[in-house]
Design brief:
53% of the residues lie in helices and 0% in strands. The longest helix has 35 residues, at 32-66. The chain has a domain at 15-66. The protein is mostly helical. The N and C termini lie far apart (68 Å). The protein is rod-shaped and about 90 Å long.
Length: 85
C-alpha cells in the first residue's frame, strides 16, 4: 500500500459508519475482528485459487495422456540383438 494511504479516508460521508463505531469503541484494537475476518476470507480465496490451478493442470495432463499412442512399438523385424561387453 505504498503511496496509497491518501486514498483511505477516515472521516467524511463515504466512510462506513460501522467501521467508525468499531474504531471509537476500541481504537485500532476495535478493528481487529474486522481484520481477522478479512484475513480468513483472503486465505480461503487463495486456497481456492490454488485448487483451481491444480485441478486445471491435472485435467490438462489427463487430456494430454489420452493423446499419447498406445500399444506395442513397431519393431524392425528379424534383427539380431547386439551384445555389449
Amino acid at each position: 500500500m505504498a503511496d496509497r494511504s491518501a486514498l483511505l479516508q477516515s472521516s467524511g460521508p463515504s466512510v462506513d459508519p460501522r467501521i467508525v463505531v468499531m474504531e471509537q469503541q476500541g481504537g485500532i484494537a476495535g478493528l481487529l475482528p474486522l481484520w481477522q475476518q478479512l484475513k480468513i476470507e483472503v486465505e480461503a480465496q487463495a486456497y481456492s485459487d490454488v485448487f483451481l490451478v491444480a485441478g486445471v493442470s491435472t485435467l490438462a495432463g489427463v487430456l494430454l495422456a489420452f493423446a499419447l499412442r498406445s500399444g506395442k512399438p513397431k519393431g524392425g523385424g528379424d534383427a539380431e540383438p547386439i551384445e555389449i561387453g
